[in-house]
Amino acid sequence: MGGNLKMQSHHSVAVRLNEQMGAKKGFTFIQAYRAWFPKLLMLWILVMAYLSFSIYNYMDADNKVRRVEVLSSMCDQRARMLQDQFNVSVNHVHALAILVSTFHYLKNPSAIDQETFAEYTARTAFERPLLSGVAYAQRVVNSERESFERQNGWTIKTMEREPSPIRDEYAPVIFSQETVSYIESIDMMSGEEDRENILRARATGKAVLTSPFRLLGSHHLGVVLTFPVYKSKLPPNPTVEERIKAASGYLGGAFDVESLVENLLGQLAGNQAIMVYVYDVTNSSDPLIMYGHQYEQDGDMSLLHESKLDFGDPFRKHQMICRYHHRAPTSWTAINTAFLFFVIGLLVGYILYGAAMHIVKVEDDFREMEELKVRAEAADVAKSQFLATVSHEIRTPMNGILGMLALLLDTALSGTQRDYAQTAQACGKALIALINEVLDRAKIEAGRLELEQVPFGIRSILDDVLSLFSEKSRNMGLELAVFVSDKVPEIFIGDPGRFRQIITNLVGNSIKFTERGHIFVKVHLAEPSTTMINGKLMTCLNGGSDEGVQTSDGCQFKTLSGCEAADDQNSWDTFKHLIANEEHRTDVSSNVAANNEASEQVTLMVSVEDTGIGIPLRAQERVFMPFMQADSSTSRHYGGTGIGLSISKCLVELMGGQINFKSRPHIGSTFSFTANFGRCKENAVSDLKKPKLEDLPSHFRGLRAILVDGKLVRAAVTEYHLKRLGILVEVVSSIKMAVAFCGRNGSATSGNIVPPDIILVEKDAWISGEECDLNKQHLEWKQNGHIYKLPKMMLIATNFGKGEFDKAKAAGFADTVIMKPLRASMVAACLQQVLGIGKKRQQGKELPNGSNFLQSLLSGKKILVVDDNMVNRRVAAGALKKFRADVVCVDSGKAALNLLQIPHNFDACFMDIQMPEMDGFEATRRIRQMESMANGEINGGLEGVARNGEWHVPVLAMTADVIHATYDECRKCGMDGYVSKPFEEENLYQAVAKFFKSKPDS
After folding, report:
1. 696 vs 729, which has greater pLDDT?
2. Is the peptide bond before 982 cis (omega within 30 degrees of 0)?
3. Nearest CA to 248 among 107, 371, 389, 388?
4. Residue 221: which residues within 8 A CB-CB, separation 6 or more?
5. How far is CA 602 from the centre of its chain?
6. How far apart (Å, rounded) are the C-alpha atoms in residues 175 and 119?
7. Which of 15, 252, 612, 992 has the least C-beta neighbours within 10 A?
8. Model pTM?
9. Range with top average pLDDT, 188-197, 288-297, 554-563
């Protein structure tokens, strides 16, 4: 108990340390700044909003720049066209002025009069589309006024059409275009501004424009263009006085500016896009409108463009102002682009935020997983320790119970006392088996179950399993049989114990749930040609169909016992193909063997068929679940824990195979599984220990036997066991056929007669109507003229009563009956007894199950037993003394150290592991230290002190703890082996056989 408390305290400390290590692990960068993520997300949103607004402003500004550029281009285009057209008109007026000067003044007489001027100007008006009309005013000084008026027949008038007052100089209109004929005789110098323009034009010699005014007749805004007309040619660079003196008149043209601009805009595309205004800005403080409405507020007032106009008068300044008709449209492109950028930025931010939070969550989950892993590992350690403790605490008293019962059974007991002791021993072994199953399941779940890889023979294991259930099957009248294909190798590499456990679980279940019929175990190679039987794949049918074979009353099925089975794979119709294939391949067996040796693995197919109660359809899905029964009443009616199939499934999967089943309620079940084993090489067979190999006598080889059995499957199984002994078998279906067969052999060739050595008769064939006088038949056989040694006849039976035995003996059968289930060793023993062939086994007081070997190994050996429990010491001492060993017992590791001080005379030490003060591990380590020091002294020159040159006493762990980790710890501390409590002779033999050599008994 002290050791348990120590392990528990160490375990709890380890758990606390692991949890602290899991809690103190450092944070990553993302974990450390996880609280900033929401703030960074908000900052990201604000940055994206600012950038989106900046993008909108940039694109909107770009749109405005393009809008300004478009307005500037359109306004400049219109100004340029207006200016060009105006200049063309000015040139035409200038040309007309030259025409008047040439043909009116330089010709004598004048070639121009009013009629000629009017007709000419009318015909050439298309050249001056911008002019509403042209007129010529002659320069008249005051002294010439009267003669001028008499010559023309009218009086010079003012703009108001009144006679012109007396002035120094006049400019009356004498020639005019018909469109402006109403200005004839009007003095163009009567207006103050007109006078100044005429005088400026005369002085400069260039065209002069007036300020805008309302034209007579149209009321449109317009200007008057004035050109001077000279009566003589001017010098190249005339002075002002020369220009004034040479001036003879003035040619003027009225421009309708509004019509001019309207015509111009009408010729251009996009006329409705912008609004145009033309101004006279000679007086910048008071610009005069020439085109457009001065107080119009429509359109886009925020954007204007000014273009300068040059109409050829340097004194007058004009400009064109343009603006859009409509305000700038909403920039949806800028809005959409900015919005999409904001949305994309928002999504990117959210994705980054989500990724960061996901990383945080993953790291949190990882940390939690690590913590859970640490806790799970600690729980696994605790579970293992718990299992070890429970195993030890239960096995320790059970060791005492079973050990004392074994010692008790070796004493002289009455029949009743022996029955009671054997019953108690069986119950104890059942409890140990249950503990082993629970521990196996726990080890499988923890992944701690490891399979051995040792050579073993499968046929002997199957025989051993059948021997375990032989008595129960006989009492229940069940046919229990095994058949192994000849193609299955003799020796495999694998775990024989776990394979035995699977077969034992399956056969045990079949025995438990079968009340009539048979349990049939069949083993063959899982080849492609055999995995398909009648087109049906051998897979997990899980109930399959409930349809059975329809037969008439009294008709038997072609199975082992004649009862209907859930699957037809073991019926004769299928079974005979397996046997036929084996016989067909006999001639090529050497080639097959050579091919098989090339493969390192062998896959076996094993099936266990029964004719029991079957599995209900609703329960078939949970058959392999641990601690589950097919029915709630099963555990009470039939017993069991429901863990066997679960363990079998796990073991099969560890062997690289699969387990399946087919079951039909009230018909039976067939469980099939595959398992992979290593192929054993020929040289490895010779290294096997004798108990692991099948030890069958060879004296029966060549014997001939006749087997009488009407059930073909059962006959094939019997033939299989006889062939293992080397006996040649001929199968017949009745005793009459056997006698007839013997007669044919006896009469075939008188000189070469080969009669059978023995006749084996199934009990069913004997009692099924064939009960004739066998002695008479034998006599009829003798009348052939020769006298032969009559063959012995033996019965094969599942159960046999006293009355049946007397009746069979009277019928001529031998005293010995071969009882089922058949096993090769048991059949050999019966044949030896009946035929007297071979060396009989030593009769008398023989210790069972290899006890002779143990006695030869342990006889005279001095063994130290170390255990703190007095009962365990007595049990161990009694078990070892049973094999004539000299046993010394101590109760602690310290006492063992004192006795094993070098030199000592102990041959071995059985050491308990869990002991107070000093456990078995520590004691073994100190023993090895003492031996190491002693061996060092031997190497230093003290050789001869030790036996055989060096000290090493075999130390075997002796404990009820069966956890694999405990075995590993035993090896690490220097122990040589492992013996589990309670003692089993086979395990004890395997442990001590490594260190002791057997010697013959005296």
Report:
1. 729
2. yes
3. 107
4. 212, 213, 214, 215, 256, 257, 258, 289, 290, 291
5. 32
6. 11
7. 15
8. 0.55
9. 188-197
